[in-house]
Specification:
Blueprint: H1 3-30, E1 32-35, E2 41-45, E3 48-50, H2 52-64, E4 72-76, H3 82-93, H4 110-113, H5 117-120, H6 124-133, E5 139-142, H7 151-156, E6 159-164, H8 167-181, H9 191-199, H10 208-221, E7 226-230, H11 231-236, H12 238-248, H13 255-259, H14 262-269, H15 272-277, H16 279-283, E8 285-289, E9 292-295, H17 314-327
Parallel strand pairs: 4-5, 4-6, 6-7
Antiparallel strand pairs: 1-2, 2-3, 8-9
Helix pairs in contact: 3-14
The structure holds 3'-phosphate-adenosine-5'-diphosphate (PAP).
Length: about 325
């Protein structure tokens, strides 16, 4: 091995890294900032609020991701059902490959089955390996707002599945999650603070309403490319919803599969009760990046509709409903 060239490339890499760090801090200085939920600040980048790491994820995705027409992108605002829909889409798309008795979801967390675009794209080798492993149709997830998606997503015609969840439950779920991730010596973060920030649009990938309405409009303009589903409908009628999802992704269930109740099997496999009972989701850890890991159990908390009632006053609930009515008029 040529040590000198290896050393040279390491120095080059370090220089690149320092240059990156310098550029990042110059960029952050120029952005508006507000109190963060678990980081010191959230920054407003192109109308949405992000942590510095998330801004980097968006930029890397824009620079590097070349979508292909048969790719599938699950897009969500955080805590809207990403984990659940990752499991559903993975099982749906791979139902010819795996048996339900020895399914990968029994031993792998949903986040290991479908990675986030903005995480995996940061490491070229992992990204290329993943692309090959799920060829031909690459399944990815993202929290990136519609207006900041890499241009190739829409130009290639890849399909986007957007999952919307009721506002108040999204806020409460985010608050619980952030409290779990909080570093012990940070000041406590009462739900009243989370509420005020959320209403101002200041939350990870917020404003929530802009995130949802941009994808909603895209689904109206391009119904065969963007499908808009809701967490609540999947809870209420999973068979109907999953059948619709299958049709949209060109993986319609055939008669034999209907007879064998394959849809029902997928619903059962991906149910909150089943996923949260699995050892991998109770003790496993998801490594999103060298700096950021989360225990799988934090992605499966209660999985209910209406849990906000246990945490928000009726008045605060009405305030949020009013903002939602104004901002998502026609959608809710
Ligand atoms: P992410 O955006 O950080 O990946 P995401 O999976 O979207 O998180 O949200 C987690 C929420 O989905 C949790 O909601 P809760 O806090 O109100 O309980 C989690 O419980 C819920 N969830 C995860 N898996 C399922 C599932 N299989 N069925 C229903 N809800 C689920």
């Amino acid at each position: 091995m040529d040590m000198s060239s290896s050393h040279y490339s390491q120095c080059e890499h370090d220089d690149e890294y320092k240059k990156d760090d310098q550029n990042d801090s110059d960029m952050l200085t120029a952005l508006s900032k507000e109190k963060g939920w678990i980081t010191e600040y959230l920054y407003q980048y192109k109308s949405f609020w992000f942590t510095p790491a998330a801004i980097k994820g968006v930029q890397k995705a824009q620079q590097r991701f070349e979508a292909q027409s048969i790719d599938i992108l699950l897009a969500t605002f955080p805590k809207s059902g990403t984990t659940w829909f990752k499991a559903l889409i993975f099982s749906l798309m791979n139902r010819d490959r795996f048996d339900f008795s020895s399914h990968p979801l029994l031993t792998k967390g949903p986040h290991d089955c479908i990675p986030f675009l903005e995480s995996i794209i940061q490491d070229e080798t992992s990204y290329q390996d993943y692309r090959i492993s799920c060829s031909p149709r690459c399944l990815l997830a993202t929290h990136i707002p519609y207006s900041l998606l890499p241009a190739s997503v829409m130009s290639s015609g890849s399909k986007i599945v957007y999952v919307f969840r009721e506002t108040k439950d999204v806020l409460v779920s985010n608050w619980h999650y952030m409290k779990k991730l909080s570093v012990k010596d940070l000041p406590s973060f009462p739900i009243e603070d989370a509420f005020d920030l959320f209403c101002k649009g200041v939350s990870h990938y917020g404003p929530f309403w802009d995130h949802a309405s941009d994808y909603w409009k895209a689904s109206l303009e391009n119904p065969d490319k963007v499908l808009f589903l809701t967490y609540e409908n999947m809870k209420k009628d999973p068979i109907v919803c999953l059948t619709k999802l299958a049709k949209f992704l060109d993986k319609t269930f055939c008669l034999e599969e209907e007879r064998e109740e394959v849809v029902q099997e997928i619903v059962k496999l991906c149910s909150f009760e089943n996923l949260s009972s699995l050892e991998i989701n109770q003790t496993g850890v998801q490594h999103f990046s060298p700096q950021f890991s989360v225990e799988n159990r934090h992605f499966l908390r209660k999985g209910q509709v209406g849990d906000w009632r246990n945490h928000l006053t009726v008045e605060r609930g009405e305030q949020l409903d009013e903002i939602t009515r104004q901002k998502l008029c026609g959608l809710v």
